[in-house]
Specification:
It is a single chain. The protein is mainly alpha-helical. Helices cover about 60% and strands about 5% of the residues. Helix 1 crosses helix 8, helix 7 runs antiparallel to helix 8 and helix 13 packs across helix 14.
């Protein structure tokens, strides 16, 4: 965890010296969260005491029991200070909104890294900070869009660039820092503090996304960027997305399908909001039925049948006796109870319909037909399945499960028309979960092998137990969601490890940039031999970089290395500086810290300190040393990136995508076109650096699968080889249903009008 910006006495908003409007806005934000945080912190206190007491009672070791009871006694003595200290810490961070200094922003273009925070600490402190960082990072991944918008608004209040999640006052990292500072004064040991942090995560941060929504809404009411919304990168339409892209000149409001302002406002976020959830994670949907919308669907189906009838020029079939919906449900139930029959394994809804009518003819002795409503249900589900099958892999291990769900889904749709109209229907949710596990955007190895048995069990439960009660779908889907949530958490943890590794590389690159900057400042305009400058730029820069990483920019060791740098420059400069054996020994020892051994470190140290001059020196020895240095892998060196060819300047379109990518929240999903047929694969943009231009991608299991530069990514967006996955396009079944409705409109000659039953993502 980064340290709080102010190490002294806590600041208060009343004495922070902020502009009046900024102070009032921050006071309102703090007051908005105070009541909820106070209640949640009180629950944390109660739960913590109860957990300590329970652990003391369950301890098998008298020493452990004594430790838990001592922690409980100390906590009870100081518990009254926890909540006030926590709230004072948050207020201090808000009051210091404009006091955080920028660190070399001119060269690094970032204010994220404070080298005073990079130092060697005790292992317990590292573990404690790691736990808090994981808690904060988990909350950061739960609400990336809310944090992004709030960071932009706090940037306005601070008269500074937008805040990222780590520096954002009232952000998850700030809450964890305030909790750590408050817990330190409780006089409880390390293990007890870790327990307190876990309970804090469960009781306080569980509702953090909702807190962010209220904070953003409050600032909108106060006029702080009231029109701010996230507009994702819009790629050129390709063969895959031709039916989903709107005209290039259309604005967001014009593209919204609804006609009223309220409907437009409700539809716009789904079209623009980036998709950040893992596979199978639950999403919010509107509830309620819509008989008017279903009637409109029937009109579209009637127009489609009429057009097809004109094209075929066939004689209308004779009138037949209609099967009641009750008899139809009974026939479907009989088919569902016969899993070994070919009909139960039918590969299409149309074949099931034919089998039901053939069976009715055998029973009644004459041909039968379905009612208009029932026939429409079969037709709609058949069209929906046709669209779904266009987006799934036939060789996926879960694709047969979609066919096994056809009979139960038919019965559920006949009983409840909401199946077509709303994404919240339990049967449709289960269908969506199973369908996404077989989507074409998944690689063959991206589906966790442990998920397939859980999905088979859920589908088997529905096939065996569904008796007209949609709760069977809900129960099966709930158990499947538990497994999917576990899968998502595992993927999230694996992703976090990759992100931490990438951030470590970024810190190394930042330290290297600062080391080069410090060396250039020390050299100034002095003339140095070419070979000495090469040694400085390679060997000695590595020493400076490592010192920054280990000790920090305000440490005595860093100052000693700067002094040694000045001594090296003086010894190798045009003047006649005396030899300094202590400087030579110091340089040799420092080179040993970055991997130079024995004679090699001694030779470099002698050349850098003037103990061995160029006069009379064997050129072959210098060449040999230069070749060794060139072959050596430097600290943080990326040879693949260094060998990459230099690309031409970005076009205006590519530059626009590049600027958008640099402000995109972490965790968005991007589709990459993999071949000329338009097949795509989804990758999650887990992290990127505006300093190194490096972007990290993982798959659905959280495994690192790709690393690109933002520059190359912007060129792919501009070329139509990559596109952002928005919430509207994220879920396969919802997208397949919208494609079905669009197809019906085209048959009816209505164009792309208002969406019907388009479940919000």
């Amino acid at each position: 965890m980064n340290a709080s910006p102010d190490r002294g006495a806590p600041l208060r908003l009343a004495s922070a010296g902020l502009p009046e409007r900024v102070r009032k806005t921050l006071k309102r934000a703090l007051a908005l969260l105070s009541d909820e945080l106070d209640r949640a912190m009180n629950r944390t206190v109660v739960e913590f005491e109860a957990e300590l007491f329970r652990l003391a009672g369950a301890a098998r070791n008298p020493g452990l029991e004594s430790g838990y009871m001592q922690a409980l006694r100390n906590f009870r003595l100081n518990r009254a200070d926890l909540v006030p200290r926590f709230m004072i810490g948050l207020e201090s961070m808000l009051a210091g909104l404009r006091r955080r200094p920028a660190v070399h922003a001119s060269r690094l273009e970032t204010g994220q890294i404070d080298f005073r925070d990079l130092r060697l600490v005790e292992h317990a402190v590292v573990d404690e900070d790691t736990v808090l960082r994981e808690i904060a990072s988990r909350q950061e991944s739960r609400a990336p869009l809310g944090l992004h918008l709030l960071g932009q608004r706090f940037g306005v209040l601070a008269a500074a660039p937008a805040f990222d999640a780590e520096r954002l006052p009232l952000g998850p990292h700030a809450l964890c820092r305030a909790m750590r500072d408050a817990a330190i004064g409780l006089d409880i040991d390390y293990d007890a503090r870790l327990l307190l942090y876990r309970i804090f995560d469960r009781e306080v941060l569980a509702g953090y996304p909702q807190m962010l929504d209220r904070l953003n809404a409050s600032m909108v009411d106060l006029g702080i960027l009231p029109a701010l919304t996230f507009v994702p990168v819009r790629a050129r339409p390709s063969a895959v997305a031709a039916n989903e892209a709107r005209p290039a000149g259309a604005t967001a409001a014009e593209a919204a399908p609804a006609s009223t302002p309220t409907a437009k406002a409700a539809a716009l976020p789904a079209a623009q909001r980036p998709h950040t959830a893992w596979m199978g994670e639950a999403r919010q949907s509107a509830g309620g039925g819509d008989e008017v919308a279903f009637a409109l669907l029937q009109q579209l189906l009637s127009g489609r049948r009429a057009l097809i009838g004109k094209l075929r020029s066939e004689t209308p079939p004779p009138r037949r006796q209609q099967m009641s919906t009750h008899d139809l449900l009974g026939a479907l139930k009989d088919l569902q109870r016969q899993p070994t029959t070919p009909v139960a394994k039918a590969t299409g809804v149309h074949r099931i319909k034919q089998a039901v009518l053939a069976q009715a003819r055998q029973v009644r002795g004459k041909a039968a037909s379905l009612s208009v409503d029932d026939n429409d249900t079969f037709e709609l589900l058949g069209m929906l399945y046709g669209q779904i099958e266009n987006e799934i892999r036939d060789d996926a291990p879960t694709s047969p499960l979609l066919r096994a769900l056809q009979l139960p889904l038919l019965r559920a749709a006949l009983l409840d028309r909401d199946f077509f109209l709303h994404g919240h229907h339990p049967a449709r949710q289960l269908l969506g979960t199973v369908a996404e596990s077989a989507a074409k955007w998944l690689d063959r190895d991206e589906l966790d092998p442990q998920l397939a048995p859980s999905m088979r069990q859920a589908v088997a439960e529905v096939v065996e137990k569904f008796e007209d009660d949609p709760a069977v779908f809900a129960n099966a889907n709930a158990r499947l969601q538990e497994r999917l949530q576990l899968h998502a958490r595992k993927a999230e943890m694996l992703e976090r490890r990759h992100v931490e590794a990438a951030r470590g590389k970024e810190k190394l690159q930042i330290a290297k940039l600062r080391a080069v900057e410090a060396l250039e400042e020390a050299i100034g305009g002095q003339h140095l031999p070419r070979f000495v400058r090469a040694l400085l730029n390679q060997a000695w820069v590595d020493v400076l970089t490592l010192t920054l990483l280990r000790q920090g920019g305000d440490s005595d060791d860093w100052q000693r290395q700067l002094n040694a740098t000045c001594g090296i420059i003086a010894a190798c400069g045009p003047g006649d500086a005396p030899e300094d054996p202590q400087l030579t020994a110091h340089v040799e020892a420092s080179l040993g810290l970055v991997g130079y051994h024995g004679e090699e470190a001694a030779v470099i140290a002698q050349r850098l300190t003037g103990s061995r001059g160029d006069d009379g020196d064997d050129p072959a020895s210098r060449t040999e040393l230069a070749l060794k240095l060139k072959a050596r892998v430097r600290l943080g060196e990326d040879k693949a990136k260094a060998a990459a060819p230099e690309l031409p300047p970005r076009t205006p379109t590519e530059q626009a995508y590049y600027e958008q990518l640099r402000v995109m929240p972490f965790g968005v999903w991007i589709e990459f076109v993999t071949n000329q047929q338009g097949d795509v694969v989804r990758r999650r943009l887990s992290w990127y650096s505006t300093v190194t231009d490096h972007a990290l991608f993982v798959n659905q299991r959280g495994q690192r699968v790709d690393e690109r530069s933002l520059d190359s990514l912007s060129r792919m967006f501009a070329g139509g080889q990559a596109r952002l996955v928005t919430a509207q396009r994220a879920h396969l079944v919802d997208r397949a249903w919208q494609a079905t409705v669009d197809a019906l409109r085209k048959f009816a000659g209505r164009g792309d009008g208002a969406s019907i039953g388009d479940a919000p993502a």
